[in-house]
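The freezer alarm interrupted the setup, so I double-checked each line after restarting. Inputs confirmed:
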Amino acid sequence: MYRAGDAFAALYLVRTGLVKSIVLNEGGREQVSGFYMPGEMVGVDGIAAGKHASDAVALGDTDVCVLPYERLEKLSHRAPAIDRHLHRILSKEVVRKQSMMLLLGSLRAEERIASFLLNLSQRFTARGFSACDFVLRMTREEIGSLLGMQLETVSRVFSRMHKEGLIQIDGKHVRLLSPQGLRRMIGN
Amino acid sequence: MYRAGDAFAALYLVRTGLVKSIVLNEGGREQVSGFYMPGEMVGVDGIAAGKHASDAVALGDTDVCVLPYERLEKLSHRAPAIDRHLHRILSKEVVRKQSMMLLLGSLRAEERIASFLLNLSQRFTARGFSACDFVLRMTREEIGSLLGMQLETVSRVFSRMHKEGLIQIDGKHVRLLSPQGLRRMIGN
DNA sequence: CGCCAACTTGATGGCTGTCAAGTCAGGTGG
DNA sequence: CCACCTGACTTGACAGCCATCAAGTTGGCG
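Predicted 3D structure, all chains:
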């Protein structure tokens, strides 16, 4: 959809499919900074500097709604409700990144995966899909990148959770057998 | 200043001193999510849900300017420039958290500290203070919390950098002897 | 049929967490 | 003025988690 450094012109509202965003630092290191589901807004990191701070890439077939930022601004001056909503969207993104920081800074591999799965589950539920049975549209490597670990570790943790009866996993198809067990695992 | 869960009523603009913000998860784990210097805005994570998602605590003597959010909203409808500025502040916070995610997910202890010191240096410079000679107002534990490591590791990395002639460090007084060396260290 | 990307699993080493002991500076009270 | 105490910090020893390297499996596709 766009690359880091591109001039910022619009926000993108995901309608169907999945979008990943990727940040890069000077040293060439890169990391997935988020996966965006239908109803979520991509590109808000571009407002600050007038150019995008990350890449955004659709994973598989995806529909997005392009919202030209200038028009959005004008609209929001006339309709306070829109403005307020925009503020909330931006703030929510801050909260999300903040909780990812907590995850990356203080959880171990197993806990990160548990947290990730529960987060997906919750977002699927909110969209009317099954809470405990879904298909991952991203690779192990992309999951690992988001969670700050190697793809081998992701794979191993999935296997271990499978053995312990917490989840069922077959390739990209996941079933949560014990959401409670996963939850317990995070709080130590 | 406020605690997680408190009703959100205002944003806080730091005028002098230093503020830290802390996020907590369900399991009782906590982490410093940011240090805020004069001119920076604290509390934007509260807009999303109408209540704060983190604690904010002043480190030492600190002045803040309280900006009641309702008034800020009304103001911004009349003055588009203010509205745009508010958007940029929110977006900048997203960018900051995003680069912290990258730091936490893909850098090693030495690189994190180097990155932290250079970031401080840059922000001091922007405020007219010395770029290479400053006093840390936070403890090793707070630094470690922000960077996702233990206070012992912070201490060890400082010592190692000192031995290698990259920095001079005496308690909380830091001098960067080779910002270039620190920069090189991050890009591998 | 062969190729390739994605994934799984094993072996090994290193970074950093953890536990422990000791130093240092500042503050309090006798 | 000194003893004492406490919090912040430093340094060492050791273990554990996870990265890294490597090899093998699977499934999809031309």
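Quick read of the result. Residues 139-141, 151-152, 155-156, 158-159, 171-172 of chain B lie near DNA strand D (CB under 10 Å from a C1').
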